[in-house]
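In this supplementary section we document a worked example of the pipeline. Step one takes a protein sequence of length 229 as its only input; no multiple sequence alignment statistics are reported here. Step two produces a three-dimensional model, which step three serialises into structure tokens for compact storage. The input and output of this example are shown verbatim.
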Amino acid sequence: MGRYKSWKEIEEKYKQTVYAHQEVNKFRGRIFVKHGLDDKSRTYPLIVKINTFLHHARSILQYALTEAKASKKTKLYNKCVSKALIFKELKTVRDKDIHQYVIKTYTIIRADSPITTLQYDPKKKKVVGIGKEFSMYVESLDDLDSPKARNTDVEIETLLLKRIDPSSGNIKKLKIQGKSEMADKLKRNEAVYESVEINGKKDIFELCDIYMAEIREFIKCGQASGFIT
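The serialised model returned by step three reads:
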């Protein structure tokens, strides 16, 4: 029996990762009714698609590790993996989702409405500023594959939330940050979440883009180092 070679498996898994990434991006820049809750399953499809993406992307690293061990090139593997902080951070998120709790998302919507007119209100006896109008399009999940309009007037940021471990260190850290309410909840072992931030990036769609790009670079590094063949 010959030595394990990972390329054929990685090639197929990469295609699945690309597809999963495309599925995640269907939610990008969009606002859905009930925060994107699917009424039939009572779950959030975006969370499912993010998990699918993380699962397939992580498998590429695992296949490569199997060959690296078989060919005694784990040092080279570790060198390639260490180039991308996002591998470690999102692995932690994925592992927590598998073994401890379900990850969540949180959407922030921002809009600029500069004052265009000043009017005197005789009833309130003060000047009232009237801002520029803006529109916001809220969609049904039925329109996921065929968007009807684009939200060009607002900025939409979707954060990936991870649960904070209820350790004494994290409780102390929250108190130092002035987040006493969160610290007290953590002390009572209640669920407290924080956004995932990697190199200053918080938006889940940007993080997935970075992960996808780093996976491509990792594959190139693995092929050049001889543990993806």
